[in-house]
Amino acid sequence: MAGNKILKSIIVTTALLFAVLNSNGQVKDTLFFLNKTIVIGELTRVRLGRIEFDADGIGNISVKNDKIYTIRAAKHYFRIETVTDKVYYGTIDSSARSGTIKIITATRQIEVPIAGISTLSYYGSDWKSKLSGEVGAGYTFTKSSNIGRFNMNVNMRYRTKHTEALLTGNTIITKDSIKVYRERENLQLAFNYYLSSRWYAAGMVSYQRNRELGLKSRWQQGVGIGYKYITSSSNQGTAGTGIVLNQEQAFSNQRNVLFEWVVQTNYTLFSFSKPNLTISTAQTFFLNLSQKGRIRWDGDLSVNWELVSDLSLKTSFYHNYDKKSPATLLPRLDYGFVAGLSYEF
Predict the structure, then answer these.
(1) Architecture of domain 131-344 in CATH?
(2) pTM > 0.85: yes or no
């Protein structure tokens, strides 16, 4: 009797699995777990070893890739980048092999291990499907000093098949008992054209303001080339170099037009253990080609602690060094720590 019940359960489960995998009317995406659990909904993306999924009746969930048997997502078109430097565009079908998926492109079918996916994102025909990013803000105030500080940051990315546009910015606004002033501002628009899965040509325009360095405004335009030196499921890194035109004005109204050689590196590390942490750093070195002996160094280190899906507590440490400040031509150093909530979309 018990054997018949077990056999019946196996038959029903197999039939259900077959129906989910092969039904032409199926429009929902499906996650198949190693423990035989099946979750239906919509696959949103894969990044840094996590599968992000909007599950029916549950909401957004984030799952480590080593918990998944296979995935089916035939409703949308995806861009899949692997740790072996391959980039594919297509839909996803389930695989009979544990820990793998099938990528269905316009011309072929490729089987790829889930652990070998560096990034996977929805690649639709409308512009919204190619846009992602985060915005964050924070505020601190002390009664004893009567000083309040507001900080805000934004990171946005727009990706097409061979190009990428990046908009990043942050600001600190301080209010004391007398006035409100813009203490620090950074805004950059960068455009990358991918020559291969790792190499890309880059162009950028940026704006800076920093009262501590005596800098009223700095506009920069530049071109260069970059390289992805790490593309794994748990960490990613890029490095680039180029030439920029620097047009700066000090608070003393002194103006400079200069050329600089720039070297930049970016690195991101994701921790899978709870709490979910993302640690990232960006460091940029400038060697002035017009003013002998002048160097600059900008950098930041950020830690994102995911509180709930898409909402994180973000803390950042920044530093800016100029060996010959435009205000005094003497070394100036600025550094600080900011914190706030960040929403990812």
Answers:
(1) Beta Barrel (2.40)
(2) no
